[in-house]
Please model this.
Amino acid sequence: MSLRNIDPDTSRIIELEKKRQTETISLIASENHASAAVLEAQGSVFTDKYAEGYPGQRYYGGCEDVDLLEDLAVERAKELFQAEHANVQPHAGAQANMAAYFALLEHGDTAMGMKLDHGGHLTHGEKVSFSGRLYNFIKYGVDRETERIDYQEIEQLALKHHPRLIVAGASAYPRIIDFERLRSIADTVDARLLIDIAHIAGLVAVGLHPSPVPYADVITSTTHKTLRGPRSGIILCRKELASAIDAAVFPQMQGGPLVHAIAAKAVCFHEAMQPDFEDYQRATLENASVLASELQRLGLRLISGGTDNHLVLVDLTAMNVTGLQAEVALEKAGIVTNRDPIPFDKRPRRVTSGIRLGTPAATTRGLGKEEVKRLAALIIRVVTNIDDVNVAREVREEVRQICASFPVPGIID
Ligand code: DSN
Model:
């Protein structure tokens, strides 16, 4: 019996979501559209299996196939990123970071991380997160003028506070991150270096963003952003930290791994090693670059003046529009984004002065430079007519027409 017959309510909501994804464009920089193969693996019979432990050392019987699967995923992750060790069990990016902190820090230790409103992440030491509650995080940010990471400030703070760990990597930072410089700062104060590549993992995998592997002690990531896999996490590290990382993931932090998610991660790593994945990442970058230059040409101010990666951060202050207003108006017009604080934002976090736009999901659907230029013009039209329902309706119709030519790969009826 099909889901539609067994549970029509849930089935109907899934159909609604398929329609929403099909008829709108996601410009949320952290989203993507996983392939049908990833979705199939994630929905596989591995959903049923308990497998606490690691390959060859499980606490349950019947794990011979899980062992094959986890070994496959680990080997692929190591090959993809040229890493010495991989743990593919973290349920998500936050869990990957938590496990890394458990492996590298003691409760109350001093660490450093990037401020959330300068592009960092909750789990990089924000007070509202476990990371800011369990550890003494000193926060660094971007330079007020250049709006780029202020490496001098990081160095000064490191010399002053002697952290045991420096965390870098970002959720809303449009520029290349200098991992070599961070390593050298960490070495100056004998700190460990953790790089969170959640946003840029796909770019790193194909060499379109410098890899942190030669410089970082530990690398954490999600697998569903530019990497285009299932919603999940991974940790990479040097061999000498392997047992500490593995013990931190299980049994310190997690119980049974989500084996179906590991299956989908194995597929994702396989897909990321195919030649067309590099083409896709290149197209994602080109689309982001076109989006940035069009938005600027049409009058919007971008944080740091542009982008080197898959995202742009728009400062709406001069438009007299808040991030919240823009997010709501764009959604009505079929363009899905998220409001985001800009560096030194004067507005509260629930409102913000910015929106973050990214091209990974739209590029997966096949949108190219011409469509991105059209989208940039539509975005301007919406934010300059923020309360105009007729404009929203007209733009929504145009977005629907664009969408009709670019199906979502994982949605097969
Ligand atoms: N929520 C993710 C993002 O949107 O970047 C980070 O965890």
